[in-house]
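Hi support team,

I submitted a single chain yesterday and got back a structure, but I'm not sure I'm reading the token output correctly. Could someone confirm the output below corresponds to the sequence I sent? I've pasted both exactly as they appear in my results page.

Thanks,
R.
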Amino acid sequence: MAMTLAEAAKLSNDMLLVGVIETIIKESPILQVLPFIEIVGNGLTYNQEATAPTATFYDVGDVWTESTPTFEQKTAQLKILGGDADIDNFLLATRSNVQDLEAAVVQLKAKAVRHLFEDTFINGDSSLNPKAFDGIDKLCEPSQTISMGPNGGTLTLEKLDELIDLIKGGKPDMLLMSKRSRRILNRLARQSGAFLETDRNEFGQMVQFYDGIPIGICDYISDNQTVGSSNDCSTIYAVQFGEGGVAGLTAPGGLQVERVGSLESKDATRIRIKWYAAVALFNKVKLAKLIGVRP
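Hi R., thanks for writing in. Yes, this is the structure output for that exact sequence:
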């Protein structure tokens, strides 16, 4: 069963782990909703639906023809991400009355893990960095990619609607974009005489919606991509999350916080945050992208 990090935190009795998870998901629209599937082994081989089966009408006595879906076999390998946080014992003993030094150091390391995951979730390419997993930009199929033009172009609501319509089996669960693209979308909404809907999510944060779809902002979607002769382009992603769409993969236990203990080489105590994780796309029509979005 797929489970988000937020749900996993509710089932944990390790307060340090709960604190790390809360830090990681606090400012990440992706990790707040991305479900993770626990797998045994170092990877998952799965069948991605390529074409859907068909049905037709028949007359009495007609010969029925068989139609089955076709699949492509994909493999997602778990990758190791994380980092060590060293807490100096002298500072821990002399300054803990000012603030919880251990909590502060671990919190900063947890944010670093979040930044790395978000960056890889979008831009990961195992052909360029074999230690990383493939992100949604690489996982997205060419048939699910549309462009603002040969050299990019200014975003239009019609083109955004076209992107949304590429997702089959319901609306996207999220539109992922850069802050610049969100500003452009806000301007387009105002020009059309309307405003983007705004509401609070389950974490108490204000979220904007376009056509009822939450807008997620990711700092790792570049505004300097090259499309044709333009090098000031960005990408907007439409994503449907879940076991039949885009889901995270993790080893049993998920995100882990490990107390390594005292170090021999220096007067410090080490805490390790580690995560064996990857991303899988189970159905190609659950992910789409619009490239060439210019200012």
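A quick pointer for reading it: The chain has two domains: 5-50+72-134+244-281, 140-240+284-294. Let us know if anything else looks off.

Best,
Support desk
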